[in-house]
Amino acid sequence: AFTLTVPYARISTPDRDPILVRIAALAMQLNDPKLTLTDLQGEILTASDSLRFTLAHADLPGTRVRGRGAIRWPSDTILYDFGMTADRVDLADLHWISPDFPDWQGRGRVVAMSRSGSRTDFALDSLTLGDGKASARGKLVAIVDIGRGLGMRGLDLALQDVPVGVMHPFL
After folding, report:
1. E strand spans, the chain
2. Within 10 Å of residue 82's Cβ, how many Cβ atoms?
3. Cα gap 11→24, rounded to integer Å
4. C-alpha of 20 from chain center
5. What are the angstrom distances between the C-alpha of 66 and each of 37, 43, 60, 62, 87?
6. φ/ψ of residue 93, rounded to 5
7. In this predicted model, what pLDDT tens digit does every residue of 19-68 receive, in sequence order?
8. What is the pLDDT of residue 77?
9. Which residue positions in the chain have pLDDT lower than 70?
């Protein structure tokens, strides 16, 4: 399923201005990655090898985020530079990122910054996640490196009643 409402789109101008799309509503279901977007409102501006975006909100079944940033693709790689705030997050909506995420809910913020074509830092703060029995609060920087895998730095999390099985995939 795919629905889209675009009240304004600038595709071409005599001055070769960047492409601009204002999205009033976007909903879609993807299979790879498995992702359901229930509503998105925002603006996208693209030129050359970059896309800048501002999201008033992007909603998944149990998650709502807002933020802004850019995605660039010089050469053959994708580089991230964005910040998002999730007033409501359900990690089940993010199993496409990692199927090992526990089925926890909460809130938090993320700032993504690609340091190179092979490494991106995701600074997570103001995290409050849990399932009613176990919880995690705090901040961390998750480092995704193509050659070295997943790493962490600045880990400052308070864990309460978290089963070892929940932590095991991340150790």
Report:
1. 2-5, 8-10, 19-23, 25-31, 34-37, 39-47, 50-60, 63-72, 79-90, 105-116, 119-130, 135-145, 149-160
2. 16
3. 17
4. 21
5. 13, 12, 12, 14, 8
6. -70, -20
7. 999 999 999 999 988 899 999 999 999 998 999 999 999 999 999 999 99
8. 87
9. none
Q: H-type helices in the chain, by residue range?
A: 164-167
Please give the pLDDT value at position 171: 78
Residues 6+ apart with CB under 8 A from 135: 104, 128, 129, 159, 160, 161, 162
The pLDDT of residue 96: 85
For residues 65 and 54, is the Cβ–Cβ distance under 8 A? no
